[in-house]
């Protein structure tokens, strides 16, 4: 197990497109363990992608389980992930281990259907929404050499479609 | 080490202001930091951090021809850099209502009483001159829960101001 170095912008390798994983062997599982350790070492990252540590294969980890109110599938190692269906869109704020001290608003699909292999090579499908779906889209972007800074929209462009809190009914003032 | 200055430039809007101003600063070796450049009404406004070892007078001299030609007013303050220390907003407050005096004071007073830290506020006057609509978008940091802020702002409703408070869920990946 080892904590790996994270590539940071403007490192041009972050723009590289990663190749599909073909061998589901012990070396892959060792790398996944290192990748997970690296994710947990950083500042509260819910996801990490292999190219962020300089391995240009289609492997990401997403884990939103630390957020109890967020619907999530636990710790997911997604090998050769593919989004097969998108629905809706919403704005949300993102940051990235590869872009320290910067956050920006990005539009992502609200709901996705995802197909991916696990580290043993078995194929799974997941229905995801909201925060977890956002994390997966952010990580898959890394596999295609895309960073969230390439997708940031102006803060003035207000497209938030998020949950709001019901206002309390006003009580009549005492007579 | 460079010292930082905050340059404020304001003038009637027209194309080309940013390129002319920044080229002049580049010419005297200034490095630009964080900036906000925005059209407000018919004016273009620049607030820009500039790192330089030049004295203020050198900056003024470099900018004078551009400012004169484009009709820009210039103001310079010496400031601390304090880069790489972004505070992250966790709450967004959206406000809209028929324009009247006091909306901003009413909303921000209520937020300040809850210890809310405004990191960014932008506002627009939409609609038309007969019935202007004031729209404001605040992002900030609150130690207190969203529900508490909603309660604190509840009275605004009765005064014709619609207020929407929502959490900003930062996703780091």
From TrEMBL, chain A:
Record EC number: 3.5.1.88
Record text on cofactor binding: Binds 1 Fe(2+) ion.
Segments passing through the bilayer: none
Primary gene name: def
Protein name as it appears in the record: Peptide deformylase
CDD domains: Pep_deformylase (cd00487)
Biological source species: Marichromatium gracile (Chromatium gracile)
InterPro entries on file: Peptide_deformylase, Peptide_deformylase_sf
Active site: 139
TrEMBL record, chain B:
Annotated ACT domain residues: 6-77, 92-170
InterPro entries, A to Z: ACT-like_dom_sf, ACT_dom, UPF0237/GcvR_regulator
Cleavable signal peptide: none
One Pfam family recorded for the sequence: ACT_6
Name of the protein this chain belongs to: Glycine cleavage system transcriptional repressor
């Amino acid at each position: 197990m080892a904590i790996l170095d994270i590539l940071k912008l403007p490192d041009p390798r972050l723009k590289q497109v990663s190749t599909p994983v073909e061998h589901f062997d012990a070396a892959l599982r060792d790398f996944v363990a290192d990748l997970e350790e690296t994710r947990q070492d950083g500042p509260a990252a819910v996801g990490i992608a292999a190219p962020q540590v300089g391995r240009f294969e289609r492997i990401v980890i997403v884990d939103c389980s630390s957020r109890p109110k967020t619907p999530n599938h636990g710790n997911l190692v997604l090998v050769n992930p593919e989004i097969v269906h998108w629905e809706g869109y919403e704005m949300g704020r993102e940051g990235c281990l590869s872009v320290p001290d910067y956050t920006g608003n990005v539009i992502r699909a609200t709901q996705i259907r995802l197909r991916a292999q696990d580290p043993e090579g078995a194929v799974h499908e997941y229905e995801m929404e909201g925060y977890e779906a956002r994390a997966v889209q952010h990580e898959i972007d890394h596999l295609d050499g895309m960073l969230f800074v390439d997708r940031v929209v102006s803060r003035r462009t207000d497209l938030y479609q998020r949950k709001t809190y019901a206002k309390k009914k006003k009580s009549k003032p005492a007579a | 080490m460079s010292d930082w200055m905050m340059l404020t430039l304001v003038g009637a809007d027209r194309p080309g202001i940013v390129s002319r101003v920044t080229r002049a600063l580049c010419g005297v070796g200034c490095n630009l930091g964080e900036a906000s450049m925005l059209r407000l009404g018919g004016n273009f406004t620049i607030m820009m951090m500039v790192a330089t070892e030049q004295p203020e007078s050198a900056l003024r001299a470099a900018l004078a021809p551009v400012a004169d030609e484009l009709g820009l007013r210039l103001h310079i303050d010496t400031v601390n850099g304090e880069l790489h220390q972004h505070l992250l907003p966790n709450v967004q407050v959206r406000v809209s209502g028929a324009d009247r005096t006091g909306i901003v004071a009413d909303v921000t007073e209520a937020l300040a009483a809850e210890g809310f830290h405004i990191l960014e506020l932008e506002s627009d006057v939409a609609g038309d001159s007969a019935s202007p609509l004031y729209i404001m978008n605040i992002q900030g940091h609150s130690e207190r829960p969203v529900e508490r802020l909603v309660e604190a702002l509840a009275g605004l409703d009765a005064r014709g101001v619609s207020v929407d408070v929502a959490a900003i869920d930062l996703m780091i990946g």
